[in-house]
Design a protein that fits this description.
Blueprint lengths: L8 H21 L4 H7 L6 H7 L7 H11 L3 H4 L1
């Protein structure tokens, strides 16, 4: 019988916190508001951007790549 290991949630939370703050830093460095970034990402409102920055929701890889392109920051900065 195999024993399942539970994922290390504290690592996930720490990673999300770092990504959220880095998204905010990159956005602010470019002089963009949350709404402006949201529009550039094709989103109707800035709610998703706010949730990402405040670590309430995780950002998917495609959106993270788009943010890196918009802010002219290497994607590795966020990881």
């Amino acid at each position: 019988m195999k024993i399942k290991r539970l994922p290390n949630r504290s690592f996930e939370r720490k990673l999300c916190i770092e990504i959220g703050s880095k998204i905010k830093s990159a956005r602010e460095e470019c002089g963009l508001s949350q709404q402006e970034l949201a529009e550039m990402l094709g989103l109707k409102t800035s709610v998703a951007v706010s949730l990402w920055e405040n670590n309430k929701r995780t950002v998917d890889a495609i959106r993270l790549w788009q943010i890196s392109q918009i802010t002219n920051v290497p994607i590795t900065y966020f990881l």
